[in-house]
Amino acid sequence: MSDTILKATNVSKIYGKQKALDKVTIEMKRGMIYGLIGENGAGKSTFMRTIMGLLSIDEGDIELFGESGKKGLQLARRRMGQSIETPALYPELTARDNLRVQAANGGVSEREIDHLLRLMGIEGTGKKKVKNFSLGMRQRLAIASTLITNPEFLILDEPTNGLDPSGIVEMREIIQRLVHERGITVLLSSHLLDELSQIATHYGILHKGKLVKELSKEELANETRQYIELETTAVQKAVIVLDELGISDYEVVHSTGIHIYERLDDVARINRALVLANVNVTRVGTTRQKLEDYFLQLTGGTTNV
Ligand SMILES: Nc1ncnc2c1ncn2[C@@H]1O[C@H](COP(=O)(O)OP(=O)(O)OP(=O)(O)O)[C@@H](O)[C@H]1O
């Protein structure tokens, strides 16, 4: 069985004169959680729609589960679920009855419905009607309904949009559970890098239809790593002091600068030790390039939230 779930090569979509997608190439392997990040209008939904076959492409190739061509893609898409165009939830029905309605044609058992409700953490909603659900609960039910067909690859369009911070954390946990318990590969989107920063294993930054950067979770962590920035005119002496303090994860970045990647809460102590050793410290402090700053740097834009 191929490990490549999605291979989109040079995919373009043009609306009139506007290129909503401009030669986007993305490859996803089984088990990945791929976060597509971009501001409003960057092309995230358009990309997801083309992958699901809800929208035709003007250029490029799409391969799903190793299948290509019209027939092959049609078959492959049966193994996928999506939240871009899900059936509307019935506000007058309970969560369970909503799933029952959607499961009606698929021969899905009550046991499976129970499992989905539990998986999404909405098993306790009982007789409560969906119209009285919070946005977070509704989002969970919407995802539960995409799981009815037991997809191997799930596409979620902005699943954290509109949720409060605790709702975002819960949604992240749910998505991680899907990956760990069901082995589902997930492509999801957000206009905020921060919202997906703890769950995605890979990131693609989309800007004006172009994929401007692709990086793994580890690469992102490195690029936005927090450290103590130490400026001193005596780098060599400072390094000796750091060694004496048992600090080994540091980097001399230039003739007067050191980045220390550990003991971030110990700035005062490190400073004291340096001063005691007669090291002239011109600046010491913790810095971190915030994720959203990093994102703006890549897209050269201003934040729209
Ligand atoms: N049916 C359409 N006709 C014309 N232009 C469209 C159509 N759908 C999308 N667009 C344009 O294509 C570009 C990409 O839109 P898309 O919805 O994919 O962006 P997005 O990143 O998903 O943003 P959002 O978060 O706002 O949904 C936008 O400039 C949008 O105006």
Give start-end ranges of low-pLDDT stretches.
Answer: none
Compute the number of helices. Answer: 11
The domain tally reads 2
Spatial sequence of strands, sheet with the most strands: 5-6-7-3-8-9
Helix content: 25-40%
Total beta strand runs? 13
Helices and strands, in order, run as EEEHEHEHHHEHEHEEHEHEEHEH
CATH homologous superfamily (4th level) name of the largest domain: P-loop containing nucleotide triphosphate hydrolases
User: What is the CATH level 1 assignment of the largest domain?
Assistant: Alpha Beta
* Computed CA radius of gyration, to the nearest angstrom: 24 Å
Reported for the largest beta sheet, the result is:
6 strands, mixed
Bound molecules: adenosine-5'-triphosphate
Structural class: alpha/beta
Mean pLDDT equals 89
CATH topology of the largest domain: Rossmann fold
In the CATH classification, which architecture of the largest domain applies? 3-Layer(aba) Sandwich
Distance between the termini: 42 Å
* Beta-strand content bin: 25-35%
The outline comes out as elongated
Family: Belongs to the ABC transporter superfamily.
InterPro entries: AAA+_ATPase (IPR003593), ABC_transporter-like_ATP-bd (IPR003439), ABC_transporter-like_CS (IPR017871), P-loop_NTPase (IPR027417)
GO molecular function: ATP binding; ATP hydrolysis activity
Keywords: ATP-binding, Nucleotide-binding, Transport
